[in-house]
Amino acid sequence: MKQKNLYIFDISTQRQMQLLIKHFSSGLIRMSRKINYPSADRNKTPILEVLQKHIDHTVEGKVLEISSGTGQHLAHFAPNFPKLTFQPTEVETSLFDSIDAYADDVPTKNVKKALFVNVMEDFAKWGLAGDFDYVINVNMIHVTPFSCSIGLFKNVSEALKPKGLLFTYGAYANNGVLEPQSNRDFDRNIRLKDPNCGVRDIQDLVKVAETYGIKLVCIYDLPANNKCLVWEKLMENV
Predict the structure, then answer these.
(1) What's this protein's family per the entry (predicted)?
(2) At 162, is the secondary structure helix, strand, or coil?
(3) What pTM did the predictor assign?
């Protein structure tokens, strides 16, 4: 019997991942269901350390992740909070298989199957109850139009319980200052690909968040010139 070729891809970029999905769906390659982003492996532990400062691991609760990507983050976070139930979501349905594969291997079995969520749609269309204790959003804000940031805060205000927390991670400017040069280069490259996207200023996000009864409470400087922002829902509705 003729041996089929086995292709190995570096999927460290979005374009390479798209090519991988294309070849996989055509049956040309055999691989694990899991997709791996090296950047997610690098930042998952620093983000976890922030979560551990703010999440009470001793009581039961619910966590919603918006824009779960490959599923690597929740698979890393969930075993550290066995009393919490994690709900991954993603707008790219091609990533569901990877998200679910990571969830299946979580030893604490507290990660649910991926659900489709578009932050531009009203929360009522998400099919979820507004009873989450925490929401996590990693590396979405700078690679989407600002309207998605507005949709994020609007819908999180519906998803979270009062006093619930939102964690966002990525590159940010603050008060008009974007440092260091590598972040300015990063921002320029994003905007060359899509002028509607780019690194956002924290103060612009604060204005949007406050419109929906959400307040910025902490800023953490993390490795690779990224930040983790912690937000709190202050009101039932606005």
Answers:
(1) Belongs to the UPF0585 family.
(2) strand
(3) 0.86
Percent pLDDT > 90 in the chain is 85
Q: DSSP 3-state assignment of 91?
A: coil
Of 230, 210, 232, 228, nearest in space to 171 by CA: 228
Tokens of 150: 């507005």
Rounded Cα distance, 201 and 194, in Å: 17
Cβ-based neighbour number of residue 7 at 10 Å: 13
84-94 pLDDT, tens digit each: 999 999 999 99
Q: How many CB atoms lie within 10 A of CB 135?
A: 23
Give me the helices (H) in 78-201, please: 96-104, 146-159, 181-193
CA distance 148 to 112: 24
- Nearest Cα to Cα of residue 159 among 100, 236, 92: 236
Evaluated on CA atoms 34, 111, 142, 25, the torsion sign reads: positive
Tokens of 231: 């937000």
